[in-house]
Amino acid sequence: MVIRNKATNSMQDMVSVFGKAITMEGKATGVTGGAFIKKYGLWSPSSVMSALKALLDKDFVTQEKDAYQVYDKFFALWLRRQL
Questions:
Q1: For 45-65, what is each residue's pLDDT tens digit?
Q2: Is the pTM of this model over 0.85?
Q3: Residue 53 belongs to a domain
Q4: Based on the structure, what is the number of domains in the chain?
Q5: Is 59 left (phi over 0), alpha (psi -120 to 50) or beta?
Q6: Is residue 70 part of a domain?
């Protein structure tokens, strides 16, 4: 399920798309792996890491071992409706 608009390339877009991808997964693992990136139409692993860092720094996403999930369940519901 590609959720990225191919015409957009800004970091803000990447953070938004990556947040939606994590929401779709529930608990996302292997976020820098080729399968995850291809499944959601993300950019490079380095862009994913930058987006992940931004989401973690703002406490939108939490990390438990190697799994990531959206912290606020209401925010996750809102993200799902944006797809």
A1: 998 999 999 899 999 999 999
A2: no
A3: yes
A4: 1
A5: left
A6: yes
